[in-house]
Every structure is written in C-alpha cells, then in structure tokens.
Specification:
By secondary structure, this protein is mainly α. It has one domain. Helix content is 88%, strand content 0%. It is built from three helices and no strands. Helix 1 crosses helix 3. It starts with a helix and ends with a helix.
C-alpha cells in the first residue's frame, strides 16, 4: 500500500500531462475540421454562377474572403447569443432570489 502511495504524485503529474496533450489534440483537430469545412463551403459556393453569388452578397473574385467574413460573423453572433443567454440566466436567478 505504501508503495502505491509513493507513486501517487507521479500519477497526478502523468494525468496532468495527458490532460494537456488531449486538450491540445482536441484544439488541433477542431482547427483541421474548421479548415476542411471552410474549403468545402467555398468549393460548393464556387459552383454557383456570378449572378447567384451576387444575390447573396458574394462575388467569385472575393469568395474566399466572403466565406471567411461569413464565418467570422457567425462566430460573433454565437458569442453574442451566449452572452445574452448568460445575462438572462443571471436575471432569472436574481428574480428567484428576490421572490424568496
């Protein structure tokens, strides 16, 4: 039993290192998926005519930039939505406390 306890600090260190590696791997994997998805989205939009692209505010000349801008706006809107939901959640909690 004492021998197992002597190894406990090393096990905690190993667990911490493995956790960091997993987190980094997950971030790298997410970055690769995002890059692949953006390429597929751009390729799909390239199949549209210039007239069709113009209808949605895009152009073949700037399509990669347009798609990047679209993704940036979507990220910003998701962040705003999370913040609004957090504010509403906090407000409901405060109301519930005030009602008590």
């Amino acid at each position: 039993m004492t021998t197992m306890l002597n190894h406990l600090p090393h096990m905690k260190t190993c667990a911490a290192v493995l956790g960091q590696l997993f987190h980094r791997h997950a971030q790298a994997c997410e970055a690769r998926l995002e890059e692949r998805d953006m390429t597929v989205i751009t390729a799909t939009l390239m199949r549209l005519s210039e007239r069709q692209l113009n209808r949605i505010g895009m152009s073949r000349r700037t399509l990669a930039l347009d798609v990047d801008d679209l993704a940036t706006r979507a990220d910003r809107e998701r962040q705003i939505c999370r913040e609004v939901l957090e504010i509403v959640k906090c407000g409901e909690s405060r109301r519930a406390i005030a009602d008590d």
